[in-house]
Amino acid sequence: MELIAEGVSHRYGGTEVLRDVSLNVRAGEILCLVGPSGCGKSTLLRLLGGLEAPGAGRISTRGAPPEGCLNPLTFVFQDFALLPWRSVAGNVSLALEHHALPTAERARIVEDALRRTRLSDFAGALPRQISGGMKQRVAIARALAVEPAVMLLDEPLSALDAQTRELLMDDLVQLWARRPFTAVYVTHNLSEAVRLGDRVAVLSRRPGRVREMVEIGIPLAERRAEDPPLAAVERRLWEAMREEAMAADRELVDG
Amino acid sequence: MAELSAGGEAGEARPVPFRGGGFRPGRARWAAPALFAALLILWEAGSRAGIVSALTLPKPSDVALTLWGLAKSGALLEHLVPSLTRFAVGSAMGVSAGIAVGVMIGLFTLARAGLAPLVSALFPIPKIALLPLFVIWFGIGEGSKYALIAFGAFTPTVVSTWGAVDNVDRTLIRMGQSFGMPWRDVVRKIVLPGALPGILSGLRVSLAISIILLVAAEMLGANRGIGAYILEAGALYDLEKLFAGVAILSVMGMATSALIGFLERRLLGWRN
Fold this sequence. Notes:
The complex is a heterodimer.
Chain A: E1 2-12, E2 15-25, E3 30-34, H1 41-48, E4 56-62, E5 73-76, H2 88-94, H3 103-116, H4 132-145, E6 150-154, H5 162-178, E7 183-186, H6 190-196, E8 199-203, E9 210-215, H7 228-250
Parallel strand pairs in A: 3-7, 3-8, 5-6, 6-7
Antiparallel strand pairs in A: 1-2, 1-4, 8-9
Chain B: H1 31-49, H2 60-73, H3 75-107, H4 109-122, H5 131-138, H6 142-166, H7 170-178, H8 183-221, H9 226-235, H10 239-267
């Protein structure tokens, strides 16, 4: 399934957040959205997933979602969004309970999702008992459980410390290697973008527009953090973003 | 090292004083019974020594004897059963209606715009003043008492529920919607459990108000019940009986508080 944005503009009150953004997410790719803070990349993601309605323009999907897909556009949130009163397994099962599934089938899906994210041993733990990295893995398991056509990840690693981020990035790469998924990945971290993205869209400062679209030709599984070609891409992205970030930094929030 | 301690007499190490304590009440299970016992002993001793006259305050031991007699004669049950029934029925009606309205105010624009000012208008009315009205509407029997207690528990429950629903993390609600959860499920699985801590702590206030109104209702029109018992004792200036009745009310208050504490530990174990 493809996800397409055509001429999307959006404003909050008097503030124009996005201006005429067009992009498409191809089946099987990870599209990273990077940009200076406040450029509207998270807003764009919420628009893509239907959590907000665009002020102008159109968001559409083309093609059928994969077989067994329960929720075509599925979010992974920055702050995990786990129910603190439900166990790890309960949080994953939350995404399935309102679908007509036989109990055994639901249990199988939960178990499978927990196994893929290496959480099987923590199925009964409560969110407050587990680390931040594990919480985000629960959120990823919950997203995988509904077999999404497109995963929408909103700065999924930003709330984590640097080491955990590194580990979780490897997890994402491995998950993708075992079963490729389509995703839009919002981040302000360029090294995350070049590690995980097939393409990287650089947004300008507010109002956000697509300033540049960079294709990274290296297969995901073959990338290493210090690869010279990757470093070159990262440098190029930074060149594109630097000016925007500096200008954004000087703006008043409500100016 | 010497140049680092410039200005001071070099060499001597002084421990950094600890200054981060306090502001963090812990648990001390013994404190409440100890204070309680100390007060009673002081009181009893004062009465026996003649410092406290029996006309102004009865001896605690006499009050205890009165309670014991009340229990042995079966009169305690005769008063306690109707009181507890009224308390249970009235507050159950008030609390459940209050939670329903509070959730509606928390979730719907129209309910908030329409009902919130109405609740603010009802809240400060002394409910006891309405008892004659309730007697006309619901009769002199149990109906008017249930209505009074229910009404008293209703308004504080609405306010606390509404606040609790407002405080539910909106990202959790968006998360539910992002998984395509139907509205009903979002309310049942996310909003209500998320609001439960606030609802339960509001219940402490609502139930205490219920007890006050229970006594008021029984004083104004009942033959049986703790309120009627206290009223009768007061009319006869029988201070032992009066204090026995008041002691029963205190125990009821503590019991409801303990019940809510129990519910909190059972239902909100996920917090800490």
